[in-house]
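Handover notes (outgoing to incoming on-call)

Open items:
1. VWA domain-containing protein: sequence verified, structure written out, both below. Nothing else pending on this one.
2. Nothing else urgent.
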Amino acid sequence: MGHRLRWNESRTKGRYVAREGEESTSIDWISTLRSKRSMRLDARHLRYRRTQGKGAVLHCFLLDCSGSMLAGERLARAKGMLVALFDRAYRERAKIALVCFGGERAEVRRQPGAAHWFNENWIAPIGGGGGTPLALGLSSAATVLERAARHRPAQRRWLWVLTDGRTNEKPQAPASADEIVVVDFEEGSIRAGRGKALALDWGARYITADALSEGGDHSYHRGV
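VWA domain-containing protein structure tokens:
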């Protein structure tokens, strides 16, 4: 089922949190009453609507750098796509993070921070090879997202998984991601469809690399 959504919108708009940091001063009374249950209402039960202020969105990109991504220059294409997405994040004052995985390791290449215009300089040298340790990559991304959630609980956290899905691993989605987008780089007339299967399992949004390149960042849809 298609569902258009721009990347600065969220399907979790109904989520509310206790007031801290960047939350609004507008009380959400339904969530507040649910929080207090049968107890006498006091300050600790108050729930506030979250607002989207400067830097209120974090886009964490998980890049598959395995050997299969080298075929057909998929990795080069994915890196070019990252440059474009980082440029958009910079214009919208969103924060970005980058985790790469391949072979037997995962590495946080960019901790959460501003997306500077010179990102291409340090994205270009990223190489690839080896297996596809998706679970390890997701674990590293989850650590980044969890740390961000502790420091900025009001921040919306997106996880973008750029992969061809060439793995038998079926890890669970990080609970600390408010939104997940699977960008599928699998090519060929016969496809295993594992990227789409991951999106289905996670209830994530799904888009092929071709569609993202042609339609911009607003053309992806739910995997469910």
